[in-house]
Design a protein that fits this description.
two-stranded antiparallel sheet, 18 helices, 2 strands, mainly alpha, SLC26A/SulP_dom
């Protein structure tokens, strides 16, 4: 009876206004294109890999995901961990780490990861999000500063358009309009700018299914497990925060355990194709809901549209100026800074602020997201225990 009810709910999650969901999927795909290109460059892989991975994840998660209407793709957190791996080893090691990441996410699902995630203190989550935002922001400065006057001019134009376009229309993403207009302008006037094709070869070929070519020694196996675990923790935290937001907006409940299983299986499959794994995305999920999406069809449509873009328009991706993409990611980074930080300062909640700061500094300085979360959580729980001990001693003394 329970199995029948589960199947019935799954089939119901595909129902909805077909045209409305396909339209939402189309616009979501357009909105995700800049991020798919930019996050792949951060991770040290070709934009074609990033776009293909985004398409594959959208399609996979539309079938396997638990939290309907939530959008998943290569993200800032996963990309920032990925660049650590590619800088130390190569892309094959990155693919291997993402295979391990998928396995860890599947294991998390059976270990009730939802309970573990809810035990992470709020100041630690705030520090984690702020560190991701900082690392993302600083990674883009090299594409904006230290270049010619044309680069600075296009940076200013990009900022102006990002802030003005939403006042004119919110139906079409401001970042997409900005990228299209400024890319055309750069080509028409032969502006001296660094383009995407200057940093990466843009050419789509359907990747073959297979395992990464990695020769593992004893220590490399340990590092591979650590990398995979770091990726899985980062993806799970980002997905948990996004799922919580979608739950609140839709006034429905979802299962992080089932989402972790679906996302882990999808990431594992993507890695077998040599792609870039990902997690849920807050902004794109909110945009999907704002467009009126009501079923899994919207994310499936977004994935199919993204794949068609890659197959038909990949040569045009190479002509996008890097400074324009950098401004897009700078905007994403600024929005990612958690406003709770200011509340800690205004309300003088110094203990929570210090735990947030410890988490933030550990991640930024050590370049280790998992270490920051673990130490920040340990400090928070230690402080809580000390406070309880003092309170108990005072009560006993009185």
């Amino acid at each position: 009876m329970e199995m029948h009810h589960t199947i019935q709910n799954y089939l119901t999650s595909w129902r909805g206004h077909t045209f409305q969901n396909i339209t939402a999927g189309l616009l979501v795909a357009l909105a995700m294109m800049p991020g798919a290109i930019a996050f792949s460059l951060i991770a040290g892989v070709s934009p074609t890999v990033g776009i293909f991975s985004t398409a594959l994840m959208l399609i996979g998660i539309s079938f396997l995901g638990s939290r309907t209407l939530m959008v998943s793709a290569p993200s800032s957190g996963v990309s920032i961990v990925a660049v650590f791996i590619t800088s130390m080893y190569d892309q094959q090691m990155l693919i291997a780490a993402m295979l391990v990441m998928g396995l860890f996410q599947i294991i998390f699902a059976f270990c009730c990861v939802d309970k573990a995630i809810h035990k992470i203190p709020v100041p630690v989550v705030v520090g984690f999000m702020n560190a991701l935002a900082y690392l993302l922001l600083t990674s883009q400065l090299k594409h904006i500063f230290g270049h010619n006057l044309s680069t600075y001019l296009f940076a200013v134009l990009s900022l102006i358009m990002i802030f003005l376009i939403p006042h004119i229309t919110e139906r079409i993403p401001a970042t997409l309009i900005m990228i299209v207009v400024l890319s055309i302008a750069a080509k028409m006037f032969h502006v001296d700018l660094t383009d995407v094709q200057d940093l990466a070869h843009i050419h789509f070929e359907m990747p073959a299914l297979g395992l990464p070519q990695v020769v593992l020694t004893g220590w490399m196996v340990v590092e591979l497990i650590i990398f995979g675990l770091m990726l899985a923790i980062v993806a799970t935290i980002q997905t948990s925060l996004t799922a919580r937001m979608v739950d609140q907006l839709t006034k429905t409940a979802s299962s992080l355990n089932r989402e972790s299983f679906g996302q882990g299986l999808t990431n594992f499959i993507i890695s077998l194709f040599g792609g870039l794994a990902g997690s849920a995305l807050v902004g794109q999920s909110k945009y999907n809901l704002k467009l009126g999406a009501t079923s899994r069809l919207s994310t499936l449509a977004a994935g199919i549209v993204m794949l068609l873009f890659l197959m038909l328009l990949s040569p045009l991706v190479g002509s996008i100026p890097m400074v324009v993409l950098a401004i897009v990611l700078t905007r994403i980074a600024m929005n990612a800074f958690d406003r709770q930080t200011l509340r800690y300062i205004v309300e003088r909640r110094w203990t929570e602020f210090m735990i947030m700061l410890i988490t933030f500094l550990l991640i930024v300085i050590a370049r280790n997201l998992a270490l920051g979360v673990l130490v920040g959580t340990a400090v928070d729980y230690s402080y809580q225990r000390i406070q309880k001990y003092r309170k108990g001693r005072d009560q006993h003394g009185s």
